[in-house]
Amino acid sequence: MRVRAPELRGRGWLNTGGKDLKLADLRGRIVILDFWTFCCINCLHVLDELRPLEEKYADVLVIIGVHSPKFEHERDAAALAAAVERYGVDHPVLDDPDMDMWQQYAAKAWPTLSVIDPEGYVVANMAGEGHAEGLRRLLDELIAVHEAKGTLHRGDGPFVPPPPSDTLLRFPGKALPLPDGTVLVSDSARHSLAVLDQDLSAVRRRVGSGGRGRADGGPAEASFSEPQGMCLLPADVAALVGYDVVVADTVNHLLRGVRLSDLAVTTVAGTGRQWRSSLDDHAHDARSMDLSSPWDVAWYDGKVIVAMAGTHTLWWFDPVKRTVGLYAGTTVEALRDGALDQVWMAQPSGLSASPDGRRLWLADSETSALRWIEDGQMHTAVGQGLFDFGHVDGPADQALLQHPLGVCALPDGSVLIADTYNGAVRRWQDGTVSTVDSGLAEPSDVVLDADGSVIVVESAAHRLVRLAPGAAGVVDGGRHKVERPPSPLAPGTVTLDVIFTPAPGQKLDRSFGDPTRLEVSASPAELLLEGAGVTTDLSRTLVLNPAVPQGVLQVVAQAATCDEDAEFAACHLTRQDWGVPVVITPDAPDRLPLILRGLDS
Q1: Which residue ranges run through the membrane (predicted)?
Q2: Angle 560-562-566 from CA coordinates, rounded to 5°
Q3: Which stretch of 183-192, 224-233, 424-433, 591-600 has the lowest confidence by average pLDDT?
Q4: DSSP three-state, residue 62
Q5: Which among 590, 498, 579 has a CA at the least distance from the CA of 544?
Q6: What pLDDT was estimated at residue 471?
Q7: What is residue 133's three-state secondary structure?
């Protein structure tokens, strides 16, 4: 039975020239609805996966971003408009602040894609990232079917680009004070680096052509794609390797080296492909290893530590040996402390080593947490979990942040936090959190200059400003919690089924053993009496603790596929993680189905 696509309704539209779109306006075209939220790294990955499809099928395909927010800040219409420009979204976007469309289309996770055929019927739904090849095959099938039926109409789409902007910087990401007193800044939306003078008001030099790319070479020839964090190498290491600065070239999934003497750029780690494999504790050749959205870098423990936001982990990079490897995390997106190989993170986005070198501080953005590493253990200073956030000062175990992206460890042992979605700079000191400044436009980094002053990257205001930390205030801006409807489950034995359907033209790839993997854990851990751990079967028997009334099941599933009937078959890996809120209720269902990829309605 075919299902009619629900009508598109929301608070407003972006990238349409002020026009409200209706499904009737799109009849005859194939439509992909991309349910996203601009905080989510997986959603940003999907934006990049969709770009080639937008270009190839421009005369038959309309992509519409449906922005269904997680954080309170993301409900702000101006913040959404800024994000659409920041991430180069070149298609119409529907503002869905109350998640009405999310519910109408039965979305369960960020991101979710829904495909509507030229006659207005939903023909596919899929969660997570990694669907570009499956979408391409599905689009080819739909084009052939509807061209034969006469129901496909080719032509220009409804996208209307916003007017060009003219500011010194455009959505700068991170800053790095240089030994000569200048400041290097990642000018992220312009895909380049800029060297600012000491008063932060003029660009002395630029590194990068300004267009998306991954070319090495001199400052005019080199190119980046939304670069973010940077760190200086120790002088003796820089002399050995031939470059001084390591740059997290985020959307290219690369680390780049910059030599300060002539601003030449070279690729030092990554292949340019996004990581979609399994993790191990081995060292790997840096240039042959895939990375995933490196967001920040810091020199710590004799290596460059990389905040690998795309996999919710930290990696290390040894510039002398030219190797990389896993430093901390398991890829599970949640908050758990302990030994580095067992911890959980959620999109780590800011790093800062303490001046004495003992601690590495990190901003764990999706858990709205400030955390630190010392002596092989990770600890949480501020943060409650994936769904709790706010602007609350006071004792650190009760304080709340909202999606922080930057952190700066100071010589007195305190830590400054770029509390991005609260528009504030916060300070942690001796177990207490206070607000140093507020009213800022998405501060994304905080760094200490050589003269002791603090530089704040005010990203959405397109500038850097100096902040002299003084007396801190106490703010109680309220507590927020993401309230996603929990899934009722029966106490005791429950069956978890992850339903996977290969994309058209693909089959499970058994060339290297079991093609599927399922990892299950819970928060609190006591929720699961049995069934935690890793198996290769996508169906698992769980035993839920009747004494724990509610919690979150953390489920990570992946499946390897390859092209059918091809002499040199391409390989693909589909991966999705879920944080499923559950409530334990007698007489509730004893089965939890999750769709890893659903290519039917």
Answers
A1: none
A2: 170
A3: 591-600
A4: strand
A5: 590
A6: 44
A7: helix
Q: For residue 42, which phi and psi values (nearest 5 degrees)?
A: -65, -35
Per DSSP, the residues of 223-263 read -BSSEEEEEEPPHHHHHHHT-SEEEEETTTTEEEEEETTTT
Give the C-alpha separation, 194 to 175, whole Å: 10
Structure tokens at 395: 């004792």
Taking a C-beta distance cutoff of 8 angstroms, is the pair 549, 362 a contact? no
Yes or no: say if 438 and 475 are a contact pair by the CB < 8 Å rule.
yes
523 within 8 A of 550, measured Cβ to Cβ = no
Which pair of structure tokens corresponds to residue 548? 């724990």
Closest CA to 47 of 212, 172, 215, 287: 212
Mean pLDDT, rounded, for 177-193:
97
Give the pLDDT confidence score for residue 473 in this predicted structure.
Answer: 52
Q: Are strands 93-95 and 61-67 parallel, antiparallel or unpaired?
A: parallel
Give the least confident one: 227-236, 435-444, 575-584: 575-584
The reported pLDDT for the residue numbered 392 is 93
Nearest residue to 507 via CA among 133, 109, 53, 32? 133
Question: How would residue 569 be classed by pLDDT, with cut points 50, 70 and 90?
Answer: low
Q: Strands, E, within 420-511: which ranges?
A: 424-429, 432-437, 443-448, 454-458, 463-467, 476-481, 487-489, 492-500, 506-508
Beta bridge partners of 287: none
What is the reported pTM?
0.86
Query: For residues 188 and 225, what is the distance between their CA atoms, to the nearest angstrom?
Result: 7
Tokens read off for 394: 């006071």
- Rounded to whole angstroms, the Cα distance separating 197 from 385 reads 40
Residue 309, both tokens = 């936001």
Cα angle 206, 212, 213 (rounded to 5 degrees) comes to: 90
The stretch 574-583 carries a mean pLDDT of 80
Two tokens at 302? 């004799």
* Whether pLDDT at 79 is above 90: yes
Six token digits for residue 244: 């001084």
Residue with tokens 């002088």: 235
pLDDT given at position 35: 96
Q: Residue 28: left if φ>0, alpha if ψ -120 to 50, beta else—which one?
A: left
| DSSP structure class, residue 52 | H
**Residue 348 DSSP code:** E
Residue 415's nearest CA partner among 367, 465, 351 is 351
CA–CA separation, 397 vs 334, rounded Å? 17
pLDDT range class, residue 482, cuts 50, 70, 90: low
Tell me if the bond preceding 111 is cis, omega within 30° of 0: yes
Output the six-digit token pair for 123: 């023909």
CB atoms within 10 A of CB 11: 14
**pLDDT above 90 as % of the chain:** 76
Mean pLDDT to the nearest integer, 419-435: 96
